[in-house]
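Purpose: get a first structural picture of the assembly so the mutagenesis plan has something to point at.
Setup: two entries, given in the order below. No constraints added.
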Amino acid sequence: MHISVLFWIATALVIVGQVMILRSTVRAIRGSPSASARRAIEWAYAVVPVIVLAVVLVSTWHASRDRAAQVQQGAAVYLP
Amino acid sequence: MTPSAVAAPTDATPDEPSLARDLIALTKPRIISLLLVTTLAPMFVAGTPSWATVLWTGIGGYLMAGGANAVNMYLDRDIDTLMARTKLRPIPSGRMTARAVLAFGVAIATAATWILGHFVNVLTAALALAGFYFYVFVYTRWLKRTTPQNIVLGGAAGAFPPLVGWAAVTGRVELASIYLFLIIFYWTPPHFWALALLKQRDYGRAGVPMAPNIWGEQETIDQMLWYTVLLLGLSLLPVTFGVFGLVYQVSTLILGTLLLWGVWRVRARAAAGVEWTAVAWWVYKYSLLYLALLFVAMAVDRHFFIT
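Result (structure tokens, whole complex):
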């Protein structure tokens, strides 16, 4: 399978999964009888992994692009 | 639906209690065996480590994780008496004093720091110690009793071993090792919530706000499903920048699809009002096998099939 095709399929799974997790967490937080300060903290807990994941996905996109270019040029395979 | 009395794991309960057995039980050896797989396999992904490096990293990793588990038992001694799963641990059963358990945990974690720093490298020791502090202070002291997302963020504590193993070989933290960290991070919720679904009464009695107790079963099972979808995509991404090849890719697809199928069955049965606890128990057990086999596949693929 072409690298870029695999990248976008995998990324789509990650994004769909994360969006649905966020959606479910928001539903759960809204449905709980917690105070607003507590809800804000729960929101923060839910958002932290999203930010980390976004940074890693951008880094992966760059690394995948570099690798695809190397493969096309017949250069040595990038092994981190 | 109320979970039935599915046979769930209890911590090591020796037939004939002895100090040596209790000390080993404090380290939670069954949990550490998986941590060791996720520490040592990445070493063979990162490069070709010497056997001495593998040995010292394994010993240091065991002692650090064992120390964290012992300190966790010290901090959780009040609720361990309330849960069937934990009431036979050395402190609640009265076989060891709390102070002795704390001293043991701190002592072996200190020894681990010295071993890793002296025989491996400073970054490896620092990462292992960071995992210790995260587990003890961030998960056990802060998150565990305050939020139903406790094991989501707390899952980071169990995700340190690949960073430790990778740093032991390369002396660095790299994108590939961050992926191994994230794979464990996102594997933790479907794994641990499968058990939490079965142990709701225990957690409720102890006042630990696990997701099934606070959000309800359906919301928890939904999240397990989406975490598994995310995990499947995430575990494929390292292939795209050349870390792994076809053997790992095929293994990931087979192992991940099986996990997804298990979680889907729990969801479908719960939605239909049919008994689902046996399937949840299967998901819990299979998820352990899933992680071990995934990491073995990484090492095999990188070591034997990618040159």
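The mean pLDDT of chain A is 86.
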